[in-house]
Amino acid sequence: MARLLITNAKALVGTHPASTKRIPGRRMATLPLIENGWLLIEEGRISDMGTMSDLPNELDRAHLPRIDASGRYVLPGWCDPHTHTVFAAPREGEFVDRIKGLSYQEIAARGGGILNSAAKLRAMSEEDLFEQAKARLEGTIRQGTVAVEIKSGYGLTAESELKMLRVVKRLQAALPIPIKATLLAAHALPPEYAEDRAAYIDLIVNELIPRVKAEGLADHVDTFCETNYFTVAEMERVLAAGATLGLPGKVHVNQFTSIGGVEAAVRQGALSVDHLEVMEPADLDALVGSGTIPTLLPSCSFFLRIPYGPARELMERDLPLALATDHNPGSTPSGNMNLVLSLACIHLRMLPEEAINAMTLNGAAAMGLENEVGSLTVGKRANIIITRPVPSLAFLPYAFGTDHIDTVLIDGAPFRTGEVLA
Ligand code: NIG
Ligand code: FE
What we know:
This protein is α/β, with parallel strands linked by helices. The chain folds into 2 domains: 3-77 and 372-416, Urease, subunit C, domain 1 (Roll), CATH 2.30.40.10; 79-365, Alpha-Beta Barrel (TIM Barrel), CATH 3.20.20. It is 35% helix and 21% strand. The chain contains 16 helices and 16 strands. The strands form 2 sheets. Strands 1, 2, 3, 4, 5, 14, 15 and 16 form an 8-stranded mixed β-sheet that branches. A hairpin with a 2-residue loop joins β15 and β16 (413-416). The protein starts with a strand and ends in a 6-residue tail after the last strand.
């Protein structure tokens, strides 16, 4: 049996019991850990753990592959529940335009933004899209991401949206991490439908959603519900069609304006509401008592210089806040969850423990992966980060921009190796 033993960890972090599926806001400051720990991996899953003083003799004497994690933290890898990692080209020209003073909305109104990405994606082959996205994802796995959600939304025709989702399916087969796929056909209104919005929603509801369900190409549906993009009523049609076929919503709401999207998404049973940079009290209240997970994207706020979401207010309402990168060419050209950790602590005023819970177990829950990843729990996949020697957990977000990760294990196998396995 393939086994691997990690010993002498400064701490095993995020040792939640299997019964904890998501962590409500007021409990997020508590991050369970085992100091001076050992952890056993068998057949790619976590099979046992404890403190070094209790390491069973037979394990200690067994000739197992072993990692000495002295001075290092062992954590569940980062779970990133909101990305647009499949895209055709970067948009650094728009970045420079924003430095010169244009806003994200002004650039979109000039034909840039999502429509710019759609024109490039429609012209690119499935093979090239796959190769580029695979390289991007491999980079983020080396940065500690061990589970990810990826959206379509740069095709904006039936054919090109399906092409994007086929690329995601190939990524699922080619890479060892769990990947969830989301149909985001309602990302921007394609110019072809400028005179008949309802026809585009009809296409999504009557053709695309049944087709992606039948072909197993998506797990979720999404809509960019926003002034100048899609209305609350349009989002509700998409969410209702998805829910009927067992594809729960994960939606873009309240990025620039509050137009009632949060309450509608909750009503439609969405799994998550994402962005939330602009929240009225009624939006916050709508989430209380629901099963919908609020997900904040601080690296998007950083890059676009827009407000940061109200993390503390969401946690005060005892909601299980999650964090994600939003990796995409327009608003967040970074899939680095380590940066998200620092921004969450610095700009969202989350404690390191709160942020780590938000980007592990709550992130996993925001993709329906809470039974597979997100914590160091017996039975879960051994998708694990081993840090370099660091003085404390708070040092991880504190020393921002520094690479603290030594080794990333996926199903117990090294994806990125540093000195502990060298
Ligand atoms: O989540 N806001 C909508 N969609 C993306 C950005 C898309 C783009 O600019 O290409 C986001 O920020
Ligand atoms: Fe997004």
